[in-house]
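To: structure subgroup
Subject: Chain for Friday's discussion

All,

I'm putting the inputs and outputs inline so they're searchable in the archive.
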Amino acid sequence: MAAEQRKNKRLALSAEISIKPLGSDVPRTQMIVEIENVSRNGIGFICDEVLEAGSTYEANLKIWTNETLDVFLKIVRRIQVGNQYQYGAVFIGMSDVDAGRIQTYQTILDMKSDEG
């Protein structure tokens, strides 16, 4: 089994993001993806579209407080699962405030699991 390489624990998050590629001459189209997990440093998601490893996307991430965070993602992993693709991406230039919101959610989940 491979050693854990993530800097922060990933959270399961029931939400969606819309993303669009940066630096492309083609018209930007938004894609809706299914989020698998999220941490201060990155996100895992599934979508039908082929996204290239190393490519960067602008994303609107709607979090559990119904706030939308504007973030940039760099694709670091792509695995095909049936007709869909599972991705891992890191956040680029996320503000400390937005990263703190994700960390706060993690803290709340950890407190709830300690109670249960």
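Points worth raising on Friday:
The chain has one helix and six strands.
Helices lie at 96-115.

D.
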